[in-house]
Each structure stands twice: as C-alpha cells, then as structure tokens.
C-alpha cells in the first residue's frame, strides 16, 4: 500500500511541476518587433547605379526589388545610401535619387533630403 501511495504522490508531483513550467512558458511576452533595416544585398544596387549611365526600369529593377517590402521612408534612406556610395557629386546624387525613387514608385516623406 505504501508503494501505491508513493507512486500516486510522485505522479501528482510530476504533473504539478509540468503545469508550473507550462504556465511559465505561456506567460512570456512576445519579443518586440525589430526596426526595419536596409537589405544586405544593397551592394548590388550600388554596383548598378555606379555602372549605369542611363537609369531605366530594367537597370534599376534589382534595386526596386530589394526595397519593395520596406516603408517609404526606410526605402528612401536605403536608396539614398546606395546612391551616395556610388557617386561623389552632390547635385548628381539628388538627381539620381529622385530618378531611382520615381522608377521604383516610392514617394519619399515630405521634406526628405539625401544628405
């Protein structure tokens, strides 16, 4: 009889411990959302912008694909960085960025400048 009571107590203790640990795992809050970042393949976009004299939908399609799922402000910053890396002249940067944003159909936020 003692072994039956001990077995019942052991099973009850194991079930209680499992319920406690299950409660801890369910009670954890979800992780915070991560801030959107530029894709790592943006270097391919830099290479396209550096080698292309004339920008059109075919030459810029790789860049547009990379930033397609991003917010307009994040995509504008990513493309700004890509254009800024590939060119040194400030006037050319602004013109090229506006051209790339137009081809990708991205409307930058009001007051956005590529500095």
UniProtKB/TrEMBL annotation:
<dbReference type="Pfam" id="PF14547">
    <property type="entry name" value="Hydrophob_seed"/>
</dbReference>
<dbReference type="InterPro" id="IPR016140">
    <property type="entry name" value="Bifunc_inhib/LTP/seed_store"/>
</dbReference>
<dbReference type="InterPro" id="IPR051636">
    <property type="entry name" value="Plant_LTP/defense-related"/>
</dbReference>
<feature type="domain" description="Bifunctional inhibitor/plant lipid transfer protein/seed storage helical">
    <location>
        <begin position="38"/>
        <end position="114"/>
    </location>
</feature>
<dbReference type="InterPro" id="IPR027923">
    <property type="entry name" value="Hydrophob_seed_dom"/>
</dbReference>
<feature type="signal peptide">
    <location>
        <begin position="1"/>
        <end position="27"/>
    </location>
</feature>
<keyword id="KW-0732">Signal</keyword>
<protein>
    <submittedName>
        <fullName>Hydrophobic seed protein domain</fullName>
    </submittedName>
</protein>
């Amino acid at each position: 009889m003692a072994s039956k009571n001990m077995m019942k107590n052991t099973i009850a203790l194991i079930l209680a411990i499992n319920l406690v640990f299950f409660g801890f795992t369910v009670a954890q809050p979800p992780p915070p959302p991560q801030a959107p970042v530029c894709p790592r393949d943006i270097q391919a976009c830099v290479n396209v912008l550096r080698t292309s004299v004339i920008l059109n939908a075919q030459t810029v399609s790789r860049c547009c694909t990379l930033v397609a799922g991003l917010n307009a402000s994040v995509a504008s910053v990513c493309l700004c960085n890509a254009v800024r890396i590939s060119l040194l002249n400030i006037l050319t940067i602004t013109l090229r960025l506006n051209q790339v944003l137009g081809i990708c159909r991205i409307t930058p936020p009001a007051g956005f400048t590529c500095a």
